[in-house]
């Protein structure tokens, strides 16, 4: 008879519950871990963003223990908060997502041997900040393991820390059906979400309004298209404002280029699956990424995608209905690419893509393998 697999207490630490890559990954991992019979908890250092509160309530109803503060915690408050959360939840393993939550977690638990702590690197260079690097070099040995969402994230971490902590690569995963199913009724969501005119092309970009995501490149492309007589594209920018000065720059470029009425900033949205289902194009001219959840979601929806030719997107090049441009791209280059897509009517087709390698079930299984390898069972403080 095969021995039963152990049940674990698993904690995830994030900076702020919100609709962003790391936090939505945690949400989906917790769902999978609860379904597999494990105890789960989430600890944060900032209150949840209002539109993410429903996600936390749903997780809590299914048994996830939440340690979410009512106000932003200062430096010392974060240390005592995570200590109390760990003491209460008694996890066997802690996955600390992104370097800042991980540093605070390891500082709080630096004098203990348990629970095991796994740092998850969600960007391609989490330690480019010198102050964080100094802190990391003080506490890096408290890691049981470091997980990177890409090879580059692990390479940069190891190069900067010069440490010998075990490292593994676990690419992000998504609930493929959640994004594929709505796209089967594209016209329904096109009408319901966008109210698009018959000949209007909806180009969607998802991500924080920030220089990393390069929304200004998409606006410059729209301006170029206008000069070429292509005036039926609406650019929809969905995402929180990560840089108010940059947002003003994007709006100024649109205004000065005469396309302000074709650029819609809609903020953070909960219905990304439906927005993708109704869109005709997905744009991601990012300057840098590690491994983008938004890109995977777009691929699952079947929408025609345009990505910058950065290393993080190399695995996506071979999928049908994908165009790759420069790294980083210019508005001129993106505009030229989009003109070809519009003229060929490639935007009208949806694309079937096999994304099994990026499924949440695969991702959750890899996190469970790490849990089984490193968890400190029956931990005590």
Please describe what this structure looks like.
By secondary structure, this protein is α/β, with parallel strands linked by helices. It folds into two domains: 9-173 and 359-374, Glycogen Phosphorylase B (Rossmann fold, 3-Layer(aba) Sandwich); 176-358, Glycogen Phosphorylase B (Rossmann fold, 3-Layer(aba) Sandwich). Helix content is 41%, strand content 17%. The protein contains 14 helices and 13 strands. The radius of gyration is 22 Å and the shape is globular.
Task: Provide a quick synopsis of the model.
This protein has 381 residues and is α/β, with parallel strands linked by helices.
Topology of this structure?
Elements: E1 9-14, H1 21-35, E2 39-44, H2 53-61, E3 65-67, H3 75-89, E4 93-97, H4 99-108, E5 116-121, H5 130-139, E6 145-148, H6 151-161, E7 167-169, H7 176-180, H8 186-194, E8 201-206, H9 215-227, E9 233-238, H10 244-256, E10 263-267, H11 272-278, E11 281-284, H12 293-301, E12 304-308, E13 322-325, H13 331-344, H14 360-374
Parallel strand pairs: 1-2, 1-4, 2-3, 4-5, 5-6, 6-7, 8-9, 8-11, 9-10, 11-12, 12-13
């Amino acid at each position: 008879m095969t021995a039963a697999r152990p049940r674990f207490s698993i904690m995830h630490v994030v900076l702020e519950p919100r609709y962003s890559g790391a936090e939505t990954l945690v949400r989906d991992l917790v769902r999978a871990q609860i379904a597999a019979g494990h105890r789960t908890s989430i600890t944060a250092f900032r209150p949840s963003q209002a539109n993410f509160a429903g996600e936390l309530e749903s997780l809590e109803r299914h048994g996830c223990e939440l340690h979410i503060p009512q106000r932003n915690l200062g430096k010392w408050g974060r240390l005592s908060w995570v200590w109390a959360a760990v003491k209460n939840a008694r996890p066997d393993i802690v996955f600390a997502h992104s370097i800042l939550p991980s540093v605070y977690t390891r500082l709080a638990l630096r004098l203990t041997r348990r629970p095991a702590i796994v740092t998850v690197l969600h960007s391609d260079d989490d330690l480019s900040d010198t102050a964080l690097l100094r802190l990391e070099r003080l506490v890096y040995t408290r890691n049981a393991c470091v997980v990177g969402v890409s090879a580059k994230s692990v390479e940069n971490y190891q190069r900067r820390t010069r440490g010998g902590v075990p490292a593994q690569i676990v690419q992000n995963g998504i609930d493929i059906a959640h994004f594929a199913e709505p796209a089967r009724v594209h016209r329904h969501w096109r009408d319901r979400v966008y109210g698009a005119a018959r000949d209007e092309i909806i180009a969607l970009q998802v991500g924080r309004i920030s220089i990393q995501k390069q929304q200004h490149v998409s606006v410059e492309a729209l301006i170029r298209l206008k000069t070429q007589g292509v005036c039926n594209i609406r650019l929809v920018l969905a995402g929180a404002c990560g840089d108010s000065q940059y947002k003003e720059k994007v709006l100024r470029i649109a205004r000065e280029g005469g396309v302000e009425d074709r650029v819609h900033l809609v903020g953070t949205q909960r219905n990304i699956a439906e927005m993708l289902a109704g869109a005709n194009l997905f744009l991601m001219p990012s300057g840098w990424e590690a491994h983008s959840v938004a890109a995977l979601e777009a691929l699952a929806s079947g929408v025609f995608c345009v990505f910058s030719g950065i290393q993080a997107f190399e695995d996506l090049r071979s999928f049908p209905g994908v165009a790759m441009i420069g790294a980083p791209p210019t508005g001129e280059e993106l505009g030229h690419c989009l003109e070809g897509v519009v003229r060929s009517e490639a935007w009208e087709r949806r694309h079937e893509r096999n994304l099994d390698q990026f499924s949440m079930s695969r991702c959750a299984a890899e996190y469970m393998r790490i849990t089984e390898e490193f968890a400190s069972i029956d931990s005590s403080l």
